[in-house]
Structures are given as C-alpha cells and as structure tokens.
Amino acid sequence: MSDPVVRSFITKLVCSKGGRVEYSRLAGEVELPDQQLREILEEPGQVRFLVRPQGDSTWVLALSAVRICVRKECEGCPRLHLCKLNLRWKCRVRSCKYSHDILSEQNRKVLKDHELCGLNENELRVLLFQNDPFLLPDVCNAYNKGVRNCNQQDDCPKLHICRHFLKGECRFPQCKKSHNLLEPKALALLLAEGVDDKMAWNIQTICDYKAAMMLEDLGASSNFKPAAGPAKATTKSEGEARPQQDSIVRPFSKLVLDQDVKTAHVAKSPQNAEKGKEKIDEICLHYLWQFCKNKSDCNMIHYDLPYRWQIQTGDGWKDLAKREEIEKAYSDPSITMYQANPASIAKSLLDLDIDFKTMTSNASAVRRLSTPSSVTKPAKFVMTTKWLWYWKNDLGQWIEYGKQSQQDGTCQGSILSSDVLENVFLSDPTGSIQFNAGPQQYEINFKDMTQRNLVYQTLREVRRRPKFVSAEDIKTKKGHTSASAPTPVPAPTPVPAPTPVPTPTPAPAPTPTSPAAPTPARPLVYGLPSTPSYPGTWDPLALPAIGYKAVKLNQLSYEYMEIEKLFQKTMSNYVIHKIRRIQNPSLWQVYQWQKEQMKKKRRGQNVEEKLLFHGTSLSSLEAICNDNFDWRICGTNGTVLGKGSYFARDAQYSHNYCRQDAKEKIMFVAQVLVGDFTVGNPTYTRPPPKSFGVLNCYDSCVDKIADPSIFVIFEKHQIYPAYMIHYSEKENKCILS
C-alpha cells in the first residue's frame, strides 16, 4: 500500500496545475522511481487518479470521492458543507447561511478522511469541480424525461445532458441523450459558471471513464460509441480531442510498461498503437511538402493545404468547402465577419457566415487547423504558417508591427516586428510585453489582444492573422526549400508582398549567415542576430524547439563552483547535491531582446544585471522552467514592495520560501536585469516614473537604495531562470566522549 502522504502530495500537485498534468512532468517533479509512481497511480482500491493517453502524451487526472452536501447542516455528515455559489465566485450574500470556510472543524474532518488536508482553497475547488456534478450548471429535467422533451431547445438555460452520465450511473451503451459536455451550447453554459476549457475537458474525460466503468460492471462491453454527440470535440483554446470511450479504461501499466519511461520524460515510440488513432490537431509539414515517412501512422493531419477550416456538427468536425475564400478573408485584419453569400437564406457548408472574433457560425463552433508557426522551425521548412501582427490606428487602418510610417513616408517606431511578437506570444499566450515607439511606452496584452499606452491609457485593438497562401502557391513550393524555391516563400526573412493594408515596403530583415543545418529546430527572436547566440557553457545538444532541458553541472567546473560560492555565502550549514543549468532557447532569446531594448532606452549604456535567488514551492518548478517567473502564479508570499516577482541577493532569505517539509529542497538562481531601481511600495503594479519625466520609469524596485538585498521585477522578460540548486541541511553527527 502506498504512503498516504505521497498520494496527497501528488493530488495537490495535479490540482495545482488545473486538475491534470502530463505524466512526464509529474515524474520529473515527484522524482520517484518509475515503477513506484505507476503503482501509486493505479493502486487497487484507491480511486485517486485517472491515467489516459492523448496523442503522444499520457495525462494524469485527479479523482476524488469527496462531495458537497446539499443541506445547510446535518450531524455527522461525511460530506463537505460549503456554499456552492462561493465556490463559483458568485456568492454576494453578506450573511450567507452556507459556510464559506473550507477549514471549519467539520470540513477539516472530511478532508482528513479523504487525505486532502494539504489542499488550499483553489486546489480543492479544482478537485470538486471536476468530480462533483453538484457544482455544474443545472441539468434540464424536461430534456431528461422521455426523448428530449424540452420545448425551449437552444434557448434553455440548463444543460441538455444525460443526468445519469454526469453521476457515472448511465446504464445504456446507446443512450439517446447527449454525453457530450464539449458541444458548443453545453460548453458555453460551463464557461458561464466559471469552468474553463481545460476543466471542461477534464470533466468530460472523467465522466466518460465512469460511464465505461459502469458498463463494464454491468457486463457490457466497454468498447462502445455514444449515440448522442460527436465522437470527438475540440475545446477552443487547447484543441484537445474529446477522448473516445474505448481508450479510457485501458490499464496504465499497459500504456507505459513497454515504454522507456524516465523521470525526465515519457519516450515517444513510433510503434505505439495509440499513435495511429489519436491525432494532433496540426497539419503535417512533411506530407504537405512532399512525403511523410510515417504514412497512415502519422499522428498529425495529412492535408493538401497549410490551413483547414472546419465546423462542428452533430456528426463531428466537417470541412468547409470555400476554404481558400475563407482563408483569404481571415488573412485580412480588417475583416471580422466572413459573409459567403448574403443572398442565400438556407445556408449550407458551401456558404456559411463566420464570425472570426468568436470563431462561430450561428451557434456552431468553427476552427482553423494549420501547420506550425514559422518562428518555431528553420527557414528550410517552407510550409509553415507565417503569422502577422497588426494594430488599428486612428483612421481605422490596420498597420503591421514593424512597418509603422509617418505622413511623409518615413518609417518610425520600435523594432517590434510580427516575428518578435509571435515568439513572445508562443512563450506565454496569456502574458504581455512592453515596448517603446519613439517617446511613447506601450503594453500589448495577448489575452485581451489590446495595446495600451502606459501614460495616456488609450487602448487599441490588436489582431494576429496568417499571411495568405493560395493553393497555387503551395504547388510551386512542393519539394523546394527556402534556398531553392522558385518563388518567394514565408521564411523568417520578410519579402515585399501585397498586404491587406497599404503600408510602405519594409527594408529586408537580416538574413541568416549560414545555411540550415541539422540542429534542433527552435524559435528565433527577429530583431536580434538571425543566428541566435547562446552562452558558451551551454550543451549544444540540449536546445529544444519548445520548452527546456535541465543539464547537470560538473562539480569540478568553474560554472558549478561560482554558483556554489554564491550560495554558500549565507548557507554554510547546507550541502548542495547537484546544480542543474536550465537551457530554454525561447526564454533566453526573449531575455536578450529585452536587454537590448533596455540598453537602447539608456542610449547604449549597459544595463545592470545580477544573479539572484528565488525560493518557491515544488509545484511551480515546471511552470518557471517552461514559461518563466510569473508573480500571479509564483509570487503569492507577499507584496510589501509591489506586485511582482521577488528575488534575493542572499540564498538564506530565499530558503525561507522553499518547501520546508521536504528533505531535499530546490532553489532557483536567476539572471535578472535590475537596471535602475527605487524603493518599492505595496501599491505598485509596475515601477514608478522617475522624477524628471513620466515617460521614463525605473526598471525595478528594492527594499533600500543603499546595498539592496530584495529586488522586485514587474516585467518577466527581465528575468531568465538560469539554475536550480538541489540542497539539504547538513547532518549533525553526535559525538560521545
């Protein structure tokens, strides 16, 4: 039997990441032997985790039998007593008769019985939402009586879902009622109640699993298809296919036992039988270019264009006929609504109107599948998708970033180009970036797709649209690379071409000085040298296209000894077990770009840069290594100097924020562009302006000007997570005399 503490820790870890986590990430964070971790996840009699394959990955979801009681009070109840509306962030009653305290004496007892004492409120909320149907929107009673008898149909404010399916009690292999929570109407109701796309996918997966288990217990075959709703559906933001129910009940040991599963990653085997079934929603570059060696076993989509427009119907996703016409309209940033045939009353798949802002056609979801972004592949891949970024000026014109022009025809503005924005966007699609254009300072918010002037607070709309490529263009590119193609191709070097808005022809960007070599594909930040420069100490074989590699340092290396020396200044009673260098090409290039921006702001003067420490919880390690420090996620321990990410000169200070109950602790060492700083304030959400100009702001905040020991950084691009130190306290030996 596994240790309850370990089970609780894994549950907390999974819930902190939104209710599910990739097996490879989980294995890397818990650092248990693979066999032991597998045994914990599939331990008989402990329904705590659900493990299922999805494409090339294996996902772990958190399960629990804990439920919320529908009554206000009941003696000795084994359920939690909490306000349902409060868990949805919707309770507005000052003196609510239902409890808002998850740590009440009765609730603590229930959590202890379910081994959930270590969960905070947000983690418990995630666990409850994806396991307790009581928290979901109400199910329509009329729909569940007879054969879909609801008179309101699409206007009904309740879920048209089989109520027994949500409870895991549906006994019908061919149920006539819908089992699909990811269809547009049901998903819209879930989103309105605070359930995001990721959580909706989790709930669907868990309900499918319970339905399959019910039929298996009844002696029916678990290999069935639902009668209502498509076999696969896709959430708008993540593009994850709804799992088919016959793939859920397969034991975890059968999924990974024959694979070389290590603590760092799950090996991807071409022979994996699931690979041919589960598709990744991305068009295969090799097939489109000329030939895919994987043929029918390829887990990507084989299609004749680099884009594919589809609409969701009751029978799944269906291709739209006028694909080039739709793509051409979508490539124009000034077009929000595509109108195929205004005169047509009875719309078919040949002439549907599409709202590009909501990606819907009437009440049906629409999606655009495409090849990978051009910034994630070397220039020789000519079938990638070139994304262009635009902002809207006062005349209602859409101007591409990096091509701003004044009335006299001269160019002005920042070096912020579409490629730079695309790189930063891919590293954090919900983040933001600040930049200068002449004397003005701006911030682009990717989540809201807006550009805000930081002084005047004016807002402008921002749009990300693909560069249009016709079917004829694709024919000329087939079998060619960027060096041999007979016509201009969407490679990192911009070529003057017709654009959706009248803009002056840009000067060519720097071209790569060396041909494409068999090096790992990785995104480049254009505006910096076209061949990215990495520190000489980095391992050239550990430069992934996306994400990071952690490289263990040699204890005899100068690099190791310098970090050890910095650490031991205030941590002499602790011993270092290992130091790992974080090699994240995307974050490094953005960090270097930020340094250049700050240097230009200082008229060529160097920017002060420091190696600083940061202590955090184990659950934040992967997020930091992949996506950098984000105070909204990692900086929850205090805001006395402002709402930003906190770093310390002394390791001893950061040690206080590491997980204290762990025998081996982990601390970050970050490269930080501190620049010009001033004393912080709890109200700051960004550095304050300097006294001699509102447009000229400080770069960071500190605890004191003279010999500062605490630094607060508000812009994450000023940070690069450089190292992870694994350490523990020295053992005190007792000597008897």
Automatic annotation (TrEMBL):
Segments forming domain PARP catalytic: 534-737
Primary site of residence: cytoplasm
Ranges for domain WWE: 374-464
Pro residues bias spans: 487-521
Domain C3H1-type: 157-182
Zinc finger (C3H1-type): 157-182
One Pfam family in the UniProt entry: WWE_4
Top-level taxon of the source organism: Eukaryota
Gene Ontology cellular component list: cytoplasm; nucleus
Keyword Manganese listed: no
Disordered: annotated segments: 226-245, 470-522
UniProt cross-references to SUPFAM superfamilies, sorted A to Z: ADP-ribosylation (SSF56399), WWE domain (SSF117839)
Compartmental location: Cytoplasm; Nucleus
GO annotation, biological process: positive regulation of mRNA catabolic process; positive regulation of type I interferon production; response to virus
One Gene Ontology term of the molecular function aspect: RNA binding
PROSITE patterns the record matches: PARP_CATALYTIC, WWE, ZF_C3H1
Keywords: Cytoplasm, Metal-binding, Nucleus, Phosphoprotein, Repeat, Zinc, Zinc-finger
Family: Belongs to the ARTD/PARP family.
Stated name of the protein: Poly [ADP-ribose] polymerase 12
Lineage of the species this protein comes from: Eukaryota, Metazoa, Chordata, Craniata, Vertebrata
